[in-house]
Specification:
Distance between the termini: 68 Å
Helix content: 10-25%
Structural class: alpha+beta
Number of strands: 7
Length: 162
Amino acid sequence: MSLVVNLRHLEAQNIRLEGKVPAAELGIDTLDEVIQVSRPLEHDLEVQKLEDGLLVQGRLRLDLDCQCVRCLKPFQYPLELDPWTCHLPLQGEDCVVPVNDCVDLTPYVREDILLEFPRHPLCDPECRGLPGVSVGKPRNSSNTGKTGMDKSAWAELNKLKL
């Protein structure tokens, strides 16, 4: 089901849009290896025509296929915008451009979904990462942080004649 509203139908009454939109129709390019959009968007929206615009209110839900940035485990992230509201002006500088008396809501839905993407998806807030990988400072206090590699790197830099 598409997210297109006919303005002529809105003159008589409000329109209710309910259903699912396939991920391909959303046109979301994540450009991120750890977040993928492959599941449909579930929506339940009501569209009203106001004097100078459209008011869209309702609920959006999309399950994202994510990979934990700490342990690399795949998991689903439920992204839900409830309530979701969008005002689309029909006049002025930022007005929507109807095509054949229809307005496509997809770009506005896509923008708000992208703004809600997790920055660093974690399978669990307490995820400790990959097993056997220590995170943080080394526990050996006798070493002042210099290793053989550090000494050789500094030695090579000291050889430069500037």
